[in-house]
């Protein structure tokens, strides 16, 4: 609406100037003997003053509003194209014949082409880095991670489990009427249970250390199987089979580990839904839980896990979205545009 008012104002000012010029020319060409005749003079049965002032102003206002409305529509179309470009969607081509709009449309299409090439390069570099990391990964590092995971599972994890069982037995057998002591014992049991969840999340981070020749789908399936063995949680998974570049696989697998770890440590959820599909030129990865949720205003800027997932998503040219409400669970969605092989090969 501001642009319409701006053009309407310009039209009015321009019309007033035209009216003043017309009056000045008239007075210079036909100087009246009696100035009062200007008020009573009529042209085409219309008062002269009204004719040379009000009518031009009305016409200027109409023209200004029309031009403003036209350019507002054009700017909205350009804004829609830019939003489509940011989201990685196909740009709606403008059908305007105006030479300026054609040039703007061509510039936006050129920008989209460059953006696509940048995403190709980013994904290609991510794939190359993933291959380099996999090649340079020393066997001793993998063995050390596995050894650490085994020791934590065989010692600390089992001790926590034993402590949890003992505390449960003590609470059940405790007949004291001291409510304060009962509350403290219940709090200790809850702390042990939370420590168990933290330990399970840590074990999921340590093992498996990498995909190691497996596909992303196989890696996520094994990760969920291990989760079900360690945590009494309902898991609903929809994982489709399709080919993904190594770099994207590696980043999505790490995002999966981080999201599951966050759910175990913070969400206190009883249900976890994971989806990995390919639709309309996008790889869509989604994790939803029914846990505690959180206030996005206070957590978004301070959560290391969320920032890590966001950075990994941006590195492969994707978009990262988090939706969460207190006591209503959390939803994480990653969308990554897929690139045609022919386009990638053209850049080689």
Descriptive terms for the model:
single chain, 348 residues, alpha+beta, 5-stranded mixed sheet
Structurally, the number of domains stands at: 3
Range of helix content: 55-70%
| Corresponding CATH architecture of the largest domain | 2-Layer Sandwich
Residue-averaged pLDDT? 77
Largest sheet, order of strands side by side? 3-4-5-7-6
Structure description:
With 348 residues, the protein is an alpha+beta fold. It has helices at 2-29, 37-40, 48-87, 99-136, 139-173, 179-206, 216-230, 246-267, 296-299, 304-315, 341-347; strands at residues 42-43, 46-47, 234-239, 271-279, 282-289, 319-324, 330-337. The strands form two sheets. Strands 3-4-5-7-6 form a five-stranded mixed sheet, with helices on one face. A two-stranded antiparallel sheet has the order 1-2. A hairpin with a 2-residue loop joins strand 1 (42-43) and strand 2. The protein is elongated, with a radius of gyration of 34 Å. The protein starts with a helix and ends with a helix.
SSE layout:
Layout: H1 2-29, H2 37-40, E1 42-43, E2 46-47, H3 48-87, H4 99-136, H5 139-173, H6 179-206, H7 216-230, E3 234-239, H8 246-267, E4 271-279, E5 282-289, H9 296-299, H10 304-315, E6 319-324, E7 330-337, H11 341-347
Parallel strand pairs: 3-4
Antiparallel strand pairs: 1-2, 4-5, 5-7, 6-7
